[in-house]
Structures are given as C-alpha cells and as structure tokens.
Amino acid sequence: LRVRPLTCTETRRGDQRIVHSLGDGTVHVSAARHDATFGFSAVFDAGASQEAVFEGSGMRQLVELAIDGFSCTVFAFGQTGSGKTYTLMGPLTQSETRPAAPGLLGLMQRSFACLLEQSRSRGSDLALSASYLEIYNEQVRDLLSPGPPCTLPLRWSKTRGFYVENQLSVDFESLEAITDLLLQALDPVLAGSQRRRTSAHALNRHSSRSHALLTIHVRSRASINPATRVPQPSACPSKQGTLCFVDLAGSERVKETGSSGELSVEANNINRSLLALGHCISLLAKPRGKRTHIPYRDSKLTRLLARSLGGSGVTLMVACISPSSRCLSETLSTLHYASRARRVTTRP
C-alpha cells in the first residue's frame, strides 16, 4: 500500500489527513463514523522514496524470478490521482530531452536497471523484447505500432490462454532502449492519438484514460564456454520469463471529476472493467474448494490478467490511496479491494 502526500489543492482547501501508518504493515483510517485498521505486506507513507518502494515491495525479487523463467506481474491500482503512474513510471513531466532525476524514477526504470545488474552478476546473456498495449474503451490497441495505435483482436487457445493477436513485439539490444520507449509514451508532444490516452478533469490534470500493459520478455541464453565460444545448454539451460507492468486507469466518480461527453463514456468503461477485476479477485480470494466459475471473460482487462491473477504467475499489487478526507469513500474502497487481493494465492 502506498499513501501519497496531500496535494497543495487539498491543503489549501483544508482537507484533513485521515490515513495514518501504524508501522508493521498496518494502516489506520480515522474519520467521522469510520474507524478501521488494515494490514498489508508493506505500507509506504507520504515520506517514502521511490527507492524505498522498489526495495520494500519485493520488486527486486520479481525481477530475479523473471530471469529464472517465471511469469511476473506488477500492477498499480487506486483512485484517479492517487499516484499509480508516478509509482510505476516516475514524474509525468519527464521526456527524452528532460529526464527525471534518478531519485524519482519509478518501479519500471528501477526494474530495468536491476535486470542489467542481475545479468552482469550472474554472467548470463539476456535477450529482451517488449510489447506495449492499452485497453481504451474496451478496445485493445498496440502502442508500439507506427502511427496511430491499431485495434487488435483478443483470442483464446488451450495452450496460450487469452492472447492478443498480431501484437508487435520489439527486440531490444539494451535496457536504455526500453526506457526511451517509456519516455516517448510520456512525452506530451506524442500524446493523444499517437500514444496512450490521458485527459484532464477536476481531480487529475493527467488522468490515464486507458489501462496500459508493458510486457518485457526475458530470455536467458545458454552460457558460453569462453575457450570454444560454444553454448553449453546442459550447464545452463535457456529460460524464458516475463515481467509485466500494468498501469490501471483510476477509478473515479463522474460527479466528483465533472466528466461529461467522451470523458464520461471513458469513465464508465474504466469503472466497468475495474468492477469486473474486483469481482474476479473476490472469487479468487475464496478457498479453492469453495470457488465458483471465475468470470475472466467479463472484460478485456480480466482476460489479459487471467494468468497473473489466478494462474501460475507471481503477482505484486501496489494499491495507491489519497490521505484526504474528501476521498474517504474511494480510499476505503481501494483498501477493501487490496485486502481481498492479498488473500489470493497462485501456484508459480
């Protein structure tokens, strides 16, 4: 769980701070007619640095597992404006010409650096490729395709499960190239029809209007005998893992955001898909013997996250909340949502 600081607008407005970290992974919500305590694997309060979140959340272990051949996913969930994109990618003001300060880099960039660090320390040769998708108004769009993103069909097979047909996967010679891709996606010059959808409303000037999924495919090549330059597969077999970063669009109340027209349609689609995700998590949190059918097909988002939520992968959920008294209902909703997700177990 990550609790962002009060914004300048909230402070000027006189909003009260209703969320307090008690240490040992517990957080307390204290407001009129609401007094509740929640427990999580880790709680990061307003003063926590980006590095503290990376090290304390278990993200480094996820990177190591991906290199070892596991399917790993991290997704950020919470109300619009609660700090999800900042946690994953860092400041929205960064670009290729104006990079962020090292201390402000998000989980993505730190994971890329960790991949490089692990590759060097293990002496393994990593082959990297990436795919980048967004789900906008229940349409899956490829963000790596040249020109405006194209809509792609979502398929299912017995061997692959749910997958996106004809999605573009790009090979990278260096981790810096993946970072450049992210900076292009953040660059306001490339925003709109060419990159991920964002808009401004009453609660967030840079509200994500789509769910974005960046998947890094990590293949550890077989070790090479330095004397003969011949691979030794028996000594170190090739492993294929994935590291998927999911930046969910924020839940929002149309009345609070003042959304209308196209923004209102986007908000309804976002909330509908998040509701489907919450329903799947609620059913997955039940003991295995009491589970009924898991309705992954209710939305494109749950279909794409099916393996991460209830399959054989390793998944980290970062729940982001606002401490403001004005956001009480959404904060409680996120805390209950995250508490259910914590009870879900997978078998990697």
UniProtKB/TrEMBL annotation:
**Which GO-annotated molecular functions does the record name?**
ATP binding; microtubule binding; microtubule motor activity
Any single GO BP term: spindle elongation
Q: Known PROSITE patterns for this protein?
A: KINESIN_MOTOR_1, KINESIN_MOTOR_2
Q: Where in the cell is it found?
A: Cytoplasm, Cytoskeleton
Domain Kinesin motor, first and last residues per copy: 1-344
Which UniProt keyword terms apply here? Answer: ATP-binding, Cytoplasm, Cytoskeleton, Microtubule, Motor protein, Nucleotide-binding
Q: What is its main location?
A: cytoplasm
Q: Which InterPro entries match?
A: Kinesin-like_fam, Kinesin_motor_CS, Kinesin_motor_dom, Kinesin_motor_dom_sf, P-loop_NTPase
Origin: domain of life? Eukaryota
Q: Name one GO cellular component term.
A: microtubule
Pfam families linked: Kinesin
PANTHER family linked to this entry? CHROMOSOME-ASSOCIATED KINESIN KIF4A-RELATED, KINESIN-LIKE PROTEIN
Family, similarity comment: Belongs to the TRAFAC class myosin-kinesin ATPase superfamily. Kinesin family.
| UniProt name for this protein | Kinesin-like protein
* Organism for this UniProt entry: Lophotis ruficrista
